[in-house]
Amino acid sequence: MRVLISEKIHPSGIDILKNAGHEVITLSQRDQGELEEKIKGADALLVRIMNVTDKMMAEAPNLKIVSKHGVGMDNIDMNAAKDRGIAVTCTLTANSQSVAEHTWTMIMALARNLILSADMYKTIGFAAKANCPLGAEIYGKTLGIIGCGRIGKRVAAIGINAYNMKVLVYDPYITKEDLPEGAELIDDKDNIFQESDFITIHCPANKETYHMVGEREFGIMRPVARFINNARGPIVDETALVKALEEKKIWAAGMDVTEQEPYPADGPLLHMSNVILTPHFGGSSVESATRVSTIAAQNIVDYFNGVECEGRLI
């Protein structure tokens, strides 16, 4: 089969496809127009975050499966795929640990003003010690989690077991039995924003969660609160976030995702001393990249071999 890979993946996945006898086609660059052209002759598509539209699927008569490299499905027209009988799979468990660890990297860095103090040391020398705002300890503080699936559960467990934190969870799709021991399920998400020292987002992007966090939520947060979004950019109203940071309604923010990706070079979040902005990098570890690539490729191999695929959604 002709398998089109839209973006760079770990070589382990390419090896799996080639060893199974499939022809692997790649793009010369990350270009939506080239993807739209090359998909027309593909039997399978392995995609990361580039858009897969109804029009593209309509113009790809041989396309049988779209294998998502990751778990966020907001870049794939799922209804169109279902209507056209195209299978869709994802890599459910492959990057959960890496994203959870990236979240904790941000929490710790924001708590101790790590980036700010390091930058000040470069510019004003050892005077940074006396001039950088004091950081905060994490131990015993309150952690608020919006969305407690595979990633949220890992983040919660680390907070409880490593830092003796009070962990509050808002997720209307789970019960308290689904939580890690020691976490508390909250019915009103306002309580998360009002009570937490650290707030982290781990829910999908959809119509229900679009701009779930905006001016109102930032307005009821504590001035010392650190806000982290390693889920999807559209969940957060970035204009409201920038305003909250500028007006010091919250202490700092860590963002691995933005509403527009790549984020504009002149965008305000890139130039704020109380923001850590990373390029959708949360799942980018050697271990995670290998797992995601391997599973995404194996799903294509399994599909054409008539074997049940991991994370099949359609």
Question: What does this protein structure show overall?
Answer:
Residues 105-282 form the D-isomer specific 2-hydroxyacid dehydrogenase NAD-binding domain. Pfam families: 2-Hacid_dh, 2-Hacid_dh_C. Keywords: Amino-acid biosynthesis, NAD, Oxidoreductase. This is Hydroxyacid dehydrogenase. There is one protein chain. This protein is an alpha/beta fold and 314 residues long. It has helices at 11-19, 32-38, 54-58, 78-83, 96-111, 114-124, 128-131, 150-163, 189-195, 215-220, 238-246, 286-304, and strands at residues 2-5, 23-26, 44-47, 65-68, 87-89, 142-146, 166-170, 183-185, 198-201, 226-229, 252-255, 275-277. The protein folds into 2 domains: 2-94 and 286-304, Rossmann fold; 96-277, Rossmann fold (3-Layer(aba) Sandwich), CATH 3.40.50. The radius of gyration is 21 Å and the shape is globular. The two termini are 20 Å apart.
In short:
The protein is of the alpha/beta class and 314 residues long. It is built from twelve helices and twelve strands. The longest helix is centred in the C-terminal third of the chain and has 19 residues.
Topology:
Elements: E1 2-5, H1 11-19, E2 23-26, H2 32-38, E3 44-47, H3 54-58, E4 65-68, H4 78-83, E5 87-89, H5 96-111, H6 114-124, H7 128-131, E6 142-146, H8 150-163, E7 166-170, E8 183-185, H9 189-195, E9 198-201, H10 215-220, E10 226-229, H11 238-246, E11 252-255, E12 275-277, H12 286-304
Helix pairs in contact: 1-12, 5-8
